[in-house]
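Write out this protein's structure.
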Amino acid sequence: AVVPSLAVGEVSQPLRSGSGYHLVRIKDKKSQEVHLVKQTLASHILLKANELTTDEQAKQRLEQLRQRIINGEDFAELAKAHSEDTGSAIDGGSLGWVSPGVMVPEFEEKMNELAVGEVSDVFKSRFGWHLIKVFDRREENMAEEYKRSQAREQIRQRKIDEDMETWLRTMRDEAYVEYRNN
């Protein structure tokens, strides 16, 4: 309990352990920065209109699936059997823990309106007709992920700036300018 209370650069009093006495000097501390993000554990079923199914038929079929879920059938089993989202259907429609800004706005808005354990009404996004079930919610500290994304963005921007400078230099070198005296 002594070490966490030390500041950077500070040296501890002698500490006794099974292997002897130790002095601890703090060189650096990890940031205690907190970037809490509210995540939702959700699953969905997606049906799309296509050559064989009209938009209205897809909606009605999903309404029937919703009723079956409300009557006690397993969401995951119905998602495996019926969802047209091949990425999540194999996992029973599971989207895993979803952070804000990952899904299209209409999907995220509907998902955020639901209580844990609740199944949404059928709704449409640009991908088709959806049914969502929310299983859990949590607040997760995403400070490290946030820092990584910031670093990636800075590196990307630096690369763009370097490429732009190289391009401008090339354009100047290749430009032909003729001065005429009239």
